[in-house]
Design a protein that fits this description.
With 539 residues, the protein is α+β, with helices and mostly antiparallel strands. It is 24% helix and 19% strand. The strands form three sheets. Strands 14-11-13-12-16-17-15 form a seven-stranded antiparallel sheet. Residues 1-29 form the signal peptide. Belongs to the oxygen-dependent FAD-linked oxidoreductase family.
Length: 539
Amino acid sequence: MERPSRRGLLGGAALVAGAATLPASPAGATASSGAPITGPVTVYPGDPRYQELTVGYNQRWVGAPDYVRVVSSTAQVVAAVQEAVDAGRRISVVSGGHCLAPFVFNSDVDVVIDLSGLDEVYFDQQRGAFAVEGGARLSGVYDTLFKKWGVTVPGGMCPTVGIGGHATGGGYGFLSRQFGAVIDHLAAVEVVVVDRSGTARAVTASRDPGDPNRDLWWACAGGGGGNFGIVTRFWFRTPGTSGANPSRLLVNPPKDVLLSAVGIPWSMLDRTKFATLVTNWGAWYEGHAAPDSPARILSGVASLSHRSSGNVFLLTQVDATAPDAARILADYLGALTAGLGADAVVAAQPAQRLPWLRAVKLIAASIPSFINPTLRGSSKSAYLRRSYTAAQAGAMYDALTRTDFANPAAAVTLAGFSGGAINAVPATRTALAHRDAAFWTLFETQWQDPAADAANIGWLRDLYGSVWAATGGYPVPGDQADGCYINNPDPDITDPAFNRSGVPWQTLYYKGNYARLQQVKAVYDPRDVFRHAQSVSLP
């Protein structure tokens, strides 16, 4: 999953008939990319590697499985799944390890299948698409695709996020308003599934309307990870492209981008000015959410961290090669800061013109927590169709200026990664149903000391519950809000003590697509082998 942050911005039935299955590779076989396949590695308790392999990005969640199986081929995943199923062991899978909820690492899991050895990125001549193996991380994906072919997928900022969780949940980043979500370029997937007889196999599913497994592709395009099987390979190709030249078959990122960083000191913001900034932000994205908006070339993040951090920040990226790029950026910043007063914006820097990949790496390097292995965290999300109200912005202000809680890493992050090209896709074309949002928001806090768990979790619950008090504590889909992002899973969403809306968590994540996801589950995972606390349930 991808999570924009304020953390230092620039400073049933058997398988359907005709299912394609992949034979197991013989020992010493070679992957399609030409990379050698190494044998699987099994790590047991007591092994020095075990501790590292049983905790993810969020240090709150630590597993205690019987063993971890590190795999480097699809055949090894099939074998690992079959072994676990035969032994009656509960499975979870990890690629990048950035799941913020205890879906991968928890006391119910007996076997963790680690895809970190399955990380090749290459052009598949036979399929005419770019293959990205399920354990690849975004930094490697961006580097390889761009340096070899000049293409990319419009994914997120964090370099260590795995493609597996990121893509299956939708996948957003600074290029998404211009080019769509990651899954809008997903041509096919290879998924290890288990049929009703308990047999594990690898199935390929594509967006081809004639593919008998197309429903599995649909479900993997926004249905979230850990629901139907283990995705061992993604194939990406932009719809409508043709020809044999790989460099024209996927998104070509801008040659250069304008990168702008603006700091606004908290000392310049009272409750009224803070609310003005928040409502200005929402109004701009609400007014530029259409797929044909010329301003879809711009995406930004407003990092509204706790007052103890000293400043709030606006980070913005614009396609510098587009007509009127500089004017669009200037108009945007003017609209966001209107009404704050000339003295409010004192830390603005001139926009930098940078090559696209260099900008990607600069953003990643400027956010140390992306690679900090000591953090604990809690987060919640919301999609917005309309701007926040002044009352909701006031609730944010009250939480962010509390004097009995002072964590600079506690924040509300407004993310302009919705709208534009994302909204050009019908809500039912993929499992990602949030196709008419204007922006989304990440509410989060991070800390290191376990003794601070209660204070941080309590602060976040109070903040989120106050912002969404009018709809029972959660952003119920309606005129203003549009539910929650599955790639920011929230353990509280299933608890009626916090989600008092009466709207089930399935609707908040998937809206009207949930029933179809259940039908796909019945076909491809009829034994419910792949499950977690918020997985798609059998119908």
